[in-house]
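Build the 3D complex.
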Amino acid sequence: QIQLVQSGPELKKPGESVKISCKASGYTFTDYAMHWVKQVPGKGLKWMGWINTYTGKPTYADDFKGRFVFSLEASASTANLQISNLKNEDTANVFCARGDRYNPHVMDAWGQGASVTVSS
Amino acid sequence: DIQMTQSPSSMSASLGDTVTITCLASQDIGNYLSWYQQKPGKSPKLMIYGATNLEDGVPSRFSGSRSGSDYSLTINSLGYDDEGIYHCHQYYEYPLTFGSGTKLEIK
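Done.
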């Protein structure tokens, strides 16, 4: 069955970096897009961007340009999100979500979420 | 950015009731609208895409509709398992945006 398994919770200080991984299984990784979505606890969902897993081309929402990098380890069916120069406002759950094969911006499978806490 | 105004923000309904949640798009998004269900501490689950299409495995008690820029999610014959937060999502253009969510409680 389709699974997206994300890395574990992270506790970081402001200014540090973090890398979140999302390992896919149960389907051909490069046939489907991968999105990243942020959720501050108790709040709504915010789209961070997506990466074309076939070409490796990332697209970032404006609020996530500069400190955020999407990358792939295609041989390991893994998508990564790196956040540098962490700020308190980066504290959130971050989800990876697969884009449907024919509607790549419809997110038809989600990871369990990775908690990022930024605190001095 | 396209704003998705979702209402109500929360609601309470009884077992067996029918409820409707709505999203108003700030500009034309065609049928590029999906609905997600999120239970506490869990990740969202796709319920409806293309405004009206039921995702595989989702009970037929769920349905989506559109009237102009108003999009609705209707749930018939409410059960306890339907409790959660429902999010609408437009994927017509970047940045993709979500509504603020509707918390549904079953009395």
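The CA atoms of residues 18 and 76 of chain B lie 4 Å apart.
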